[in-house]
Design goal:
Helix content is 62%, strand content 0%. With 405 residues, the chain is mainly alpha-helical. The chain has three domains: 5-212, no CATH class; 235-281; 293-401. The chain starts with 8 loop residues before the first helix and ends with a helix. The model has no long low-confidence stretch (mean pLDDT 88).
Length: 405
């Protein structure tokens, strides 16, 4: 049996998240907000899901660059592993720093900084867009001759280590603070306090920040999140709001030079009033009403099922044909959109539920066996749904939100 052992990262990370939550709760520390944690984990689920589809592409890019354009051919060895570690961490520092200094790169990275909680769930806020950008930076490594296998090995290390520095439970770590990125260093990086902004970009080693003048020690407890909070649990809005803001800002500029500055300028210089225009255009506003327990339970159970499904999807992805992978991916993404919209109490979630149910019904048609029976069942169910659409929608919203249209 061929299985993907990377699937075990899902229960491993969830286990640490639950452990951190249990410790924080025992110490009565308010480090976790349920809806923020769900929004954080939702983005992590999407990244793991998309990574299954594109991880092979990254390996192919590195291998092709090394074989066709590599200046050298490097054989694995202890010294070269150490050298590659230093190179990857150095490149990561600059990738990370530029992601904070250039608007178009910040559009992908901003998602990681939206959480106003700082815990292990915040570490899961990585998007596949960041993975593509990072690949562009790391493309220099195969050109220098490092083989794809070595590079992707360090991709795993750079994916695991940062998870453990996203916590408020661990204090300063003595002598380790001088060499490695620690939770204390990374708390500064995620802070929205002015004196902490744009500091501590390192991934594993903190020495790059000290060399290039971006290091800052943690003093008083930081406030976390964006300097202008997003105030949204929407899965889609969290991913695309800043790209939309760039687009709106570009439209308002007349000259090419002004448009260029919008795209490649600094986020610190970006017009903050564009956010309100974007929110008005897409009717984005967070519902401030208290979210009741029935609503919480529905979202929580969807997340539990998603995480279990994601584990088995990654574990046995070798046996799934591409159309089935895409269908499952679509269902999971619809569920993540659904959970975010439910937490903001949007009424259009029924359309998402309807679409998700439709995709599930269509999966059996991938196989042509007994197609007449399958088609009959789908037509009957579709007829029932259309005939009682408004009644089903009203009862659904009543059950989920405890209100009627």
């Amino acid at each position: 049996m061929v299985i993907n052992i990377l699937a075990f990262a899902v229960p491993l990370f969830i286990g640490f998240i639950l452990l951190e939550y249990a410790i924080a709760r025992k110490r009565k520390l308010p480090y976790f907000n349920l809806h923020t944690s769900i929004a954080n984990v939702s983005i992590g689920i999407a990244e793991r899901l998309c990574d299954v589809l594109v991880a092979g592409l990254f390996y192919f890019v590195y291998e092709s660059l090394q074989k066709n354009y590599g200046l050298f051919v490097i054989k694995p060895g202890v010294l070269l592993w150490v050298l590659l570690f230093l190179f990857t961490d150095f490149i990561w520092y600059w990738y990370h720093r530029l992601a904070h200094e250039i608007n178009i790169l910040w559009a992908a990275h901003v998602v990681h900084h939206q959480s106003e909680d700082f815990n292990y769930t915040a570490s899961t806020r990585i998007t596949v867009f960041q993975a593509f950008i990072r690949t562009g930076f790391w493309a220099i490594l195969p050109l220098l001759g490092f083989p794809a296998g070595m590079i992707t090995s360090f991709l795993l290390i750079h994916g695991i280590y940062p998870f453990f520095v996203h916590t408020r439970l661990v204090g300063k770590l003595g002598i380790l603070e001088y060499v490695f990125v620690t939770p204390s260093h990374h708390r500064v990086h995620h802070a929205s306090d002015e004196k902490y902004l744009d500091k501590n970009y390192g991934d594993i080693l903190i020495i790059w920040d000290k060399l290039f003048g971006t290091f800052k020690k943690e003093e008083e407890e930081p406030a976390y999140g964006l300097t202008k909070p997003l105030n949204s649990y929407s899965f889609l809005w969290q991913h695309f709001h800043f790209a939309i803001e760039i687009w709106l800002s570009m439209k308002a500029k007349k000259t090419f030079k002004e448009k260029w500055k919008v795209v490649f300028g600094k986020p610190a210089d970006f017009d903050p009033t564009v956010r309100e225009k974007a929110e008005a255009l897409f009717q984005v506003r967070q519902n401030k009403e208290t979210i009741e327990k029935p609503l919480n339970r529905y979202v929580i159970w969807q997340m539990i099922i998603l995480l279990i499904g994601l584990f088995f999807f990654i574990l046995f992805e070798h046996y799934l044909r591409f159309p089935i992978k895409m269908a499952i991916t679509f269902i999971i993404l619809l569920t993540l959109i659904n959970c975010g919209a439910i937490m903001e109490q949007k009424r259009w979630i029924f359309l998402v539920e309807f679409l998700r149910f439709t995709v599930i019904l269509l999966i059996p048609f991938y196989s042509t066996a007994y197609w007449q029976t399958k088609l009959s069942i789908v037509l009957i169910l579709t007829g029932v749904l259309l005939g009682y659409y408004h009644s089903i929608k009203r009862n659904y919203l009543t059950y989920v939100y405890r209100f009627r249209q």
